[in-house]
Amino acid sequence: MRTFTKLVATETKLFLRTPIWPVLGVLLPAAVLLAVGLIPGFTKPSDVTGGYRFVDLFVPSLVVIAIAMLGLQVAPGAIAAYREQGVLRRLATTPVPPSYLLLAQLAIHAVVALAGVAVLLVAGHAAFDVPMPRHPLTFLVTLALGLVSVFALGLIAASLARTSKGAGGLAMVAYFPIMFLGGVYLPRPLLPAVIQRIGAYIPPGTQPLQDAWVGNGVQPLQFLVLALFALGGTALAVRLFRWE
């Protein structure tokens, strides 16, 4: 554990040498929310959203940005770059398990993503009086499953690619659909009904997050599908991953 802790500290220092990613990961979702809140009508109740404000229902979609950007763009590229540079191969000859490096990378990016979600919640509540999740425990469990699901997809991309650019390209296959179905490009209430139904079961779980936030709780089927994505994606990523 002491070795892993030191490795995390070292990798964190290396990660912070390129401050654009931690800064974007933490601040971008909140910045988008503040910009969206300035759009006329987005802070007023609407019949289209069942009496809710657009800004209230858009916050779960912005959680997608916090998770997807790091889980499907930054983390896969960083992990594949270590393979491309031979770092994993050299590390395999030392007493330090290569898996420690992988776990350290995933932990660092996950912490930044969760920090981005926390800043988003605080900014939304302070600027627009966006309520905190009505079902906080369900929200946190759904958020954890969604994060694991998306990061597993990113790890699959890193497993299949030989280079960091290749990993980023493969991750794009999941990145854009997740962003679209999650309501990032267009608020979910404005999407066609069939697209909304499909998006309700796609990681990181925008609809379950929304239901835990302002609704009556997550529907069992949505929760089950998200859990299957998390477990199945992680298992597949572990099976496909190669150190060289």
UniProtKB/TrEMBL annotation:
The keyword Transit peptide does not apply. GO terms for molecular function: ABC-type transporter activity. It comes from Amycolatopsis saalfeldensis. GO terms for cellular component: ATP-binding cassette (ABC) transporter complex. One of its GO terms (biological process) is response to antibiotic. Belongs to the ABC-2 integral membrane protein family. It is a multi-pass membrane protein. The chain crosses the membrane at residues 20-42, 62-82, 102-127, 139-160, 167-186, 221-241. It is found in: Cell membrane; Membrane. Pfam families: ABC2_membrane. The keyword Membrane applies. This is Transport permease protein. Keywords: Antibiotic resistance, Cell membrane, Membrane, Transmembrane, Transmembrane helix, Transport. Residues 20-244 form the ABC transmembrane type-2 domain.
